[in-house]
């Protein structure tokens, strides 16, 4: 999900996405149109919030997959996740991170908060391999990964009221206006995330695109079950590190906006 502020490479790449909508990646909302599937039946057309970008895993990432994947990468299944079995403990707060990129931030936060369990969802294989490598080097025992569409994971694997927190850091801004419908943080998906939070649980989003930050603020503020912990944008919580990409943007004068909302009691 997360693209750390980088828009799609070009119009040609994005144009092909419309031909593939509904075949592999549902978003939290449909656009009201239909497409005819291989079974000859018309199905609701759904909008994907990411494209599977080309990228090769390094040899080190491949080795991490082989050595650590069997323990730390969980299979997607349309059934509730058994957290105690997956994390080999009970009672720990449960945090979902959607789109962790190359995993640096995830590993940092998991190391800083060893009492919490972190479930990272990411579709891009090099990123999964990079986080597995960090898990082995640190080492970390409180991180698990699902390499699958986050919308389906939330819908089918995470029951209502099961999460203590959700992190969505630097999701793809889909900066062109005609692509705004692909943005992840739309009202239906925010409502879905809110339903999975426990009372008092938090949703923490961050972006370096001001226009997207404004949309996030409007969408999150429009979800009746959530309340803002700040007047508008929140100070960066201590646990969220400043990434290399973010540092580069800050040096160029780009802003970063954090939003932290809590589930009402």
Automatic annotation (TrEMBL):
Lineage, top-rank taxon, reads Bacteria
The residues the record assigns to binding substrate are 176, 208, 243-246
Could you tell me which residues belong to the region Disordered?
1-43
Q: Which UniProt keywords apply?
A: Methyltransferase, S-adenosyl-L-methionine, Transferase, tRNA processing
GO molecular function terms noted in the UniProt entry? tRNA (guanine(46)-N7)-methyltransferase activity
Q: Looking at the UniProt record for this protein, which Gene Ontology cellular component terms does it annotate, in alphabetical order?
A: tRNA methyltransferase complex
The name this protein carries in UniProt is tRNA (guanine-N(7)-)-methyltransferase
Q: Which gene encodes it?
A: trmB
